[in-house]
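[SOLVED] Predicted holo structure with glutathione

Edit: marking solved, answer below. Original request kept for reference. I posted the sequence and ligand SMILES and asked for the 3D complex as C-alpha cells.
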Amino acid sequence: MIDLHYCATPNGMKVALMLEETGLAHRIIPYDIFEGDQLRPGFGRINPNRKLPAIVDHDPGAGESPLPVFESGAILQYLGEKTGQFLAPAGPLRSRTIQWLTWQVAALGPMGGQASHFLRYAPAGQDYAVERYTREYDRLLAVLENRLAESPYLAGEEYTIADMAVWPGQASAFVMGRQGSERPATRRWYEAIAARPAVQRATARADLKAPDKYLGRHQKLSEAEWSNMFGDAMHAAVRGD
Ligand SMILES: N[C@@H](CCC(=O)N[C@@H](CS)C(=O)NCC(=O)O)C(=O)O
C-alpha cells in the first residue's frame, strides 16, 4: 500500500497518473496548502521540505520499514524502478527519460511556479520579476515544442515518467494560452496522453480534483494563507518551532 500525500496541483497529479497507470494499491491523503495542512506535526518526517506531493511506501521490500519519498521527480523514478514500468532499467531510453524528467523538475516546473507566483499572488508592480519569469517560462515551452516536433514523446517513441512529469502542468488554460496555437506538437502530444485510459480515470477522480480556489488567475490570499505557504508559519515549521 502506498500513501499519496496529495494536494490537487500539477505536482500532485504527476504521481497520481503514475499510480493509476501502474495500478499500485494506494490511498490519497488530502492536503489543503492554503489552510497549512503541510505544516502538520509529523509531516516533516515524510517531507522535510514540507511540500506536496510525498509518498510513503508501506511495502518497499522484504524486511524494510515503510519508506517515505519526497520530490515529485524522485517519486516517479522510485515508482518506475519499483514496477519496471515507464522507466527503462538502463541505456539510452532511460538516460533520455531522466534528462527530460530533470529538466521538468529543475527548469520548467520552478520557472512556471515563479511566473505563476508573480502573476497570481504577488502585489502589483513586480514588472521585472513578471518579465523575467514569464519570458524564461515561454522559452522553456519553446524547448518543449521543439522536442515534441521531432519525437512522439519526450524520451522517444515511448510514454515515460518524463511525460507524466510535464503533462499535468500543460493542462491549465494559463499555460495553454501562452503561445497558444503556435504549439501544435505540444497540443498533439497533450491530446494523445489525455486519451490514455489511466489519464482519463485519474482526471475524472473526485478525490484528485483541484478546488476552484487553486485555479484563480489572480489570488488574494488572507494573511494566514500567505503565512502558511510563503511566510512565517512555513518558516517556523521548517525550523521546528
Ligand atoms: N520540487 C517539488 C515542488 C513541490 C511544491 O512546490 N509543491 C507545492 C504544491 S504544487 C506545495 O506543496 N506548496 C505548499 C507550500 O508552498 O507551502 C516537487 O517537485 O515535488
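OP edit: Strands lie at 2-6, 26-30, 54-57, 67-70. Thanks to everyone who chimed in.
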